[in-house]
């Protein structure tokens, strides 16, 4: 464990430059005291490592020093091959590059690790989209990805859900996200004079755009400087939390059959600790809207009874009566 941590410190300093003890401790998930002991061990082993005191201080390796202790473990080799997702790579225009990289990596591995990596590739396949989701048409994805990589401005015509549906935007694209088989670009939109060529970032808040909703696209020669503090993973986590908070703004009190309770496991806000005499349970479920809840609960058929809100219960009762009347009559010939 310690030897692995010492190697991690070397690689962090080799790739990241100067780092403080606190930064290393946070990265390695250990205490600062542990980092100090590890630094002493590296010094004792003859690693040319030194530290600077002060506000801008930290540890760094002697210029030009490179460790060659970069051999992969079996698990690391397997994980690298598992992380090579051919579908998204092909959509980004990187399919041939990914195949070539995997071929070079496989050729460089010892025979034992090569066999384990091959076994991982033959036994695991990742297909992210759901069964009933069609593949999105994303013809502009390679251009968006190139603009993200090279910090180039984008002019797009974009289709959104509210009026006016088709709008023009000038974007500073900060990063790409693949979520459930769908591609998004996180970008800040320039407006007014800024969109006509003002240099540098506008400070506008980042927003999320579905790439399959881009109708037209042009990449500018103009470059921009992404905000130094922008964290793509942190932004996306906050975006998802905000999305779910806005999505589920109401609640429904329901009775669920054991089959429905199993199907909805993990979605309830609260559940009664003990089943009722007939085996059903009472639960409070988050709902997006009456229309959405009406559709979702109808899909559960006779395995759910809505107790509240009364408007939702009334709408479901009306639908059930209409269905019963339709199926009680003779079918048309």
Secondary structure layout plus pairing:
Blueprint: H1 2-16, H2 21-28, H3 32-44, E1 49-52, E2 58-61, H4 74-83, H5 86-91, H6 95-108, H7 111-123, H8 141-150, E3 152-159, E4 166-179, E5 182-190, E6 206-210, E7 214-223, H9 232-247, E8 250-256, H10 258-263, E9 270-271, E10 281-287, H11 290-298, E11 304-308, H12 310-328
Antiparallel strand pairs: 1-2, 3-4, 3-7, 4-5, 5-6, 8-10, 8-11, 9-10
Describe the fold and architecture.
The chain is α+β, with helices and mostly antiparallel strands. Helix content is 42%, strand content 23%. The protein contains twelve helices and eleven strands. It has helices spanning 2-16, 21-28, 32-44, 74-83, 86-91, 95-108, 111-123, 141-150, 232-247, 258-263, 290-298, 310-328; strands spanning 49-52, 58-61, 152-159, 166-179, 182-190, 206-210, 214-223, 250-256, 270-271, 281-287, 304-308. A five-stranded antiparallel beta sheet has the order 6-5-4-3-7.
State the separation between the terminal residues, measured CA to CA: 76 Å
* SS class: alpha+beta
Question: What is the count of DSSP helices, taking H or I runs of 4+ residues?
Answer: 12
Residue share in helix: 40-55%
**Rg:** 28 Å
Assign an overall shape: extended
Rounded average pLDDT: 81
Low-pLDDT regions: none
N-to-C SSE string, H for helix and E for strand: HHHEEHHHHHEEEEEHEHEEHEH
Q: Roughly what fraction of the amino acids lie in strands? A: 15-25%
β-strand number:
11
Strand order of the largest sheet: 6-5-4-3-7
Largest sheet, strands/sense/barrel: 5 strands, antiparallel
